[in-house]
């Protein structure tokens, strides 16, 4: 099964960008047999909802100094084989738990570049204005990745796009 796990904190401005994007995309993704898990800050429960044969997309806030709203994509296999050098706001959570348990999930980490982290229930104006484009980029990336995985591996059940 293909699963998208959105991690973030709704009360920390742009840290919630993954949650907001996943909520917008949820209906579209369900039509493509992608199970959406809104994990917020409860990454442990999300981890236990994953099965070893799942293809997993982890969607999270990311801070590298790049253009706010840009999307960073990393294969989970690559992330799992590296020390924690990534600038995710939750890099000591879901990915570290996967490492701790020696999980060999196939999939991708999608990081959305933040503009501002601080106490507020609203996204920054910068990301709020870019949210429709962010959602389009994420959906297209997921479709492309799944299409490539089906073509090359034949392992992911998929409906027509």
TrEMBL record:
Family from the record: Belongs to the peptidase A31 family.
The entry's keywords: Aspartyl protease, Hydrolase, Protease
Domain of life (superkingdom): Bacteria
GO molecular function term, any single one: enzyme activator activity
GO biological process assignments: protein processing
A Pfam family hit: HycI
InterPro entries reported for this sequence: Pept_HybD-like_dom_sf (IPR023430), Peptidase_A31 (IPR000671)
Matching CDD domains: H2MP
Record has Hydrolase as a keyword: yes
Source species: Lacrimispora sp. BS-2
The name this protein goes by in its record: Hydrogenase maturation protease
């Amino acid at each position: 099964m293909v699963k998208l796990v959105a991690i973030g904190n709704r009360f920390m401005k742009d840290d919630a960008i993954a949650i907001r994007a996943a909520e917008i995309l949820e209906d579209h993704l369900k039509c493509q047999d992608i199970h959406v898990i809104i994990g917020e800050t409860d990454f442990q429960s999300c981890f236990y909802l994953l099965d070893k044969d799942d293809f997993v997309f982890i969607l999270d806030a990311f801070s590298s100094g790049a253009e706010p709203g840009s999307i960073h994509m990393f294969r989970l296999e690559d992330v799992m084989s590296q020390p924690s050098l990534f600038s995710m706001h939750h890099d000591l959570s879901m990915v570290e738990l996967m490492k701790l348990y020696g999980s060999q999930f196939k999939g991708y980490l999608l990081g959305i570049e933040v503009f501002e982290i601080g106490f507020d229930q609203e996204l920054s104006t910068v990301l709020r204005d870019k949210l429709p484009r962010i959602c389009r980029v994420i959906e297209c990336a997921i479709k492309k990745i799944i299409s490539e995985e089906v073509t090359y591996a034949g392992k992911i059940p998929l409906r027509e796009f």
